[in-house]
């Protein structure tokens, strides 16, 4: 068991915690008593004449205010005192041992009754499942020594020592073939956090899914784990990351037998663009490129932008994820993109070259750590129309050379009316999955094609769980290998495999 930090003097902590706990219990019971009294007083009001009737408003206000204040105190206290309680589980002092003995004999644990969320969160980080202790210890010890791509051999030795079965993940001829038939839902950083993720893992298990894809850096640029990078601390401010320490959480997912995919949104990054204006995409006439009135895009060719994203990816790889998934690995196709002054760009046809060069750097890094690289791409670029390539820079001949997995976002609802001769593409789920995957398979012979599927009903007239089944059917028919389900609110329903 990985031990947490213990205060040299636990007695003050324990005394404070015990007193606070006792007080909280008393207050909670007072709140319950107040609720009962409230019912009785309401009955009395109806039977006690004009005076009580005149005071009815004041009495009701008091009866409503007291339980509200009690509830507020009950849920606010864990944020202040929860860590003190959690530390009792690891404290080796005699008094703490006596407290744990008392706590365990209470039928319902006092600590876990009062502070369930902080306790669960802490225990997840210090009590890893059997088989991962060695991995976590080695990872923490060597976190800063894990190699750059230039020294891949030591990295492979590390992988052989601590990640059995991953050292031989790559095929001959220097080509990386991605893992086949990975199936997963998408989770935000909030949904993937300790204490909340388990219901999604249970859904995945009953649905026979084998992976978990979760936000590391979201579309706003918020980094969801506790990073040590100075620039990340600048962009995040004081907002605490929901995932906490990443390595133990990844180990937890793996202990549950789930393949781990870390999603990193790249160039749509409002936080980075706001904190570092020199990294924004600028217009030819001056000023930043705006999307719906906001500055959300950073320039893919700026060295500072690339280094920032590479540093985050390196930290995530050090935590032991199986796969890095890059989203928004493109230029903007929104706003006045045609009059933007892109840094170092000769013409619009030069965009794929810039993206491709950067992806080669990322792919070298993922290989050095024994992980896979997947790319999210616009669904429409599967048809490789020149205008789409000019705007996004997503040339699939180029992107495919620097990736193990390609994940087109073939949401039927996102195709315009009459696309492909279909009045409402959203009502033809199998058609667009089959055509899109087939197109990419023709361009990229060796990469895994793992499409995103639509798990939401926007613009769909006949949405049901069967809608997902039909998309899977279309993808498999065209040679798709696995899939990912997208629902921005992380609301998923059970469906049938075709």
Q: Termini distance?
A: 43 Å
Instruction: Outline the low-pLDDT stretches.
Output: 1-15, 74-90, 104-109, 111-176
Give the CATH H-level superfamily of the largest domain. Answer: Glycosidases
Percent range for β-strand residues = 5-15%
Cα-based radius of gyration, to the nearest Å = 27 Å
- The average pLDDT is 77
Largest sheet: 9 strands, parallel
Structural class: alpha/beta
Describe the structure.
By secondary structure, this protein is an alpha/beta fold. The chain folds into two domains: 10-126, no CATH class; 135-409, Glycosidases (TIM Barrel, Alpha-Beta Barrel), CATH 3.20.20. It is built from 18 helices and eleven strands. Helix 9 (197-206) links the parallel strand 1 and strand 2.
Keywords:
498 residues, alpha/beta, TIM Barrel, nine-stranded parallel beta sheet, two-stranded antiparallel ribbon, 11 strands
Blueprint (SSEs and pairs):
Elements: H1 10-47, H2 49-54, H3 56-88, H4 94-104, H5 110-114, H6 116-126, H7 133-142, H8 152-162, E1 183-187, H9 197-206, E2 211-217, H10 230-236, H11 246-255, E3 259-265, H12 270-275, E4 282-283, H13 303-318, E5 323-327, E6 340-341, H14 351-368, E7 372-378, H15 386-392, H16 396-399, E8 405-409, H17 429-443, E9 448-449, E10 452-454, H18 465-477, E11 483-486
Parallel strand pairs: 1-2, 1-11, 2-3, 3-5, 5-7, 7-8, 8-9, 10-11
Antiparallel strand pairs: 4-6
Helix pairs in contact: 1-3, 3-6, 13-14, 17-18
């Amino acid at each position: 068991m990985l031990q947490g930090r213990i205060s040299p003097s636990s007695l003050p902590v324990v005394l404070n915690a015990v007193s606070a706990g006792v007080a909280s219990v008393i207050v909670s019971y007072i709140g319950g008593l107040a609720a009962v009294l409230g019912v009785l007083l309401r009955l009395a009001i109806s039977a006690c004449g004009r005076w009580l009737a005149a005071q009815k408003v004041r009495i009701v206000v008091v009866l409503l205010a007291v339980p509200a204040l009690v509830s507020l105190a009950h849920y606010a206290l864990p944020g202040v005192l929860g860590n003190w309680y959690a530390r009792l589980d690891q404290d080796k002092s005699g008094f703490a041992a006596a407290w744990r003995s008392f706590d365990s004999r209470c039928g319902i644990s006092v600590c876990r009754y009062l502070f369930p969320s902080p306790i669960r969160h802490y225990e997840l980080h210090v009590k890893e499942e059997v088989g991962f202790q060695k991995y976590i210890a080695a990872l923490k010890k060597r976190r800063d020594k894990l190699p750059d791509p230039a020294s891949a051999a030591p990295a492979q030795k590390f992988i052989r020592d601590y990640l059995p079965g991953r050292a031989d993940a790559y095929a001959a001829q220097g080509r990386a073939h991605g893992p086949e038939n990975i199936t997963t839902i998408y989770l935000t950083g909030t949904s993937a956090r300790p204490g909340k993720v388990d219901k999604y893992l249970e859904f995945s298990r009953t649905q026979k899914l084998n992976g978990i894809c979760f936000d590391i850096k979201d579309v706003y640029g918020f980094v969801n784990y506790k990073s040590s990078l100075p620039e990340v601390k600048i962009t995040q401010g004081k907002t605490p990351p929901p995932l906490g320490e990443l390595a133990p959480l990844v180990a937890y997912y793996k202990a549950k037998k789930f393949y781990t995919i870390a999603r990193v949104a790249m160039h749509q990054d409002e936080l980075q663009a706001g904190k570092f204006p020199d990294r924004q995409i600028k217009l030819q006439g001056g000023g930043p490129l705006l999307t719906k009135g906001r500055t959300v895009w950073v320039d893919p060719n700026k060295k500072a932008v690339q280094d920032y994203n590479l540093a985050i990816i390196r930290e995530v790889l050090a935590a032991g994820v199986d796969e890095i998934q890059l989203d928004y690995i493109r230029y903007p196709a929104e706003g006045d993109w045609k009059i933007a002054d892109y840094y170092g760009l000769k013409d619009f046809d030069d965009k794929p070259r810039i993206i491709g060069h950067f992806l080669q750097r990322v792919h070298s890094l993922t290989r050095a750590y024994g992980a896979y690289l997947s790319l999210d791409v616009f669904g429409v670029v599967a048809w490789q129309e020149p205008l789409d390539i000019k705007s996004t820079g997503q040339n699939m001949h180029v992107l495919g050379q620097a990736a193990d997995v390609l994940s087109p976002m073939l949401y039927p609802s996102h195709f315009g009316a009459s696309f492909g001769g279909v009045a409402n593409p959203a009502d033809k789920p199998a058609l667009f999955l089959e055509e899109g995957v087939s197109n990419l398979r023709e361009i990229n012979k060796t990469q895994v094609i793992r499409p995103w599927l639509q798990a939401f009903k926007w613009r769909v007239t006949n949405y049901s769980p069967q809608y997902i089944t039909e998309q899977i059917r279309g993808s498999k028919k065209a040679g798709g290998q696995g899939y990912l389900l997208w629902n921005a609110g992380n609301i998923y329903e059970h469906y049938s495999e075709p």
